Here is the input.
Amino acid sequence: MKKVLKNVSFVFLLLKMCIIFGQETSTQKRIVIDVGHGGKDAGAIGVNGIQEKDVILNIANTILELNDKLDKSLDIYLTRYTDTFISLSDRTRLAKALKADLFVSLHCNHSNNANARGIEVYAYRKQTNHLKESIYIGYQIEKEICKIIGYESRGIKFANFLVLKDTIGYCASILLELGFLSNKDEGNYISDASNVQFIASTILSSIQN
Here is the structure.
């Protein structure tokens, strides 16, 4: 099903069809992975010319592939499957329409300081219903990535990002900054396909629990 989906409008169409034909909803844990940026929005540009939108899409698609190999242990949807621009409001609308259990927004960081490095996790402080769960899941992902891959921890932080703010009351939600593209070591690391496998598998195993 997911391979057919190319953008948010397709998802809404399929959801309507499920309602019309009375299909049962999945009992699996449902995850919406928000693939940051896309299309005209390249996001951060790395020291080696890589674009954040491409790096994140590679990681997200690898998570899907790994999940498929595990007989789809999680019910995972992406906010975009190709290099497409999707508005922030449509990204959060998708999570609400799918009644997601978890919303994970993937990004890479950038700084004018070429030595800045590490992984950051963000949550929205006013998530009164899901704040503890969001912090716990974010901590688990960060801890595993730092342990397995060797990223430095920049901690759990709070921010007023729209994709987090608009999922209040619906599900746990976090935003991951997966290293600095402006850092030569981290930019080169995340550009390598084998390293993308490590990052994707670590994220997947962290959200399975």
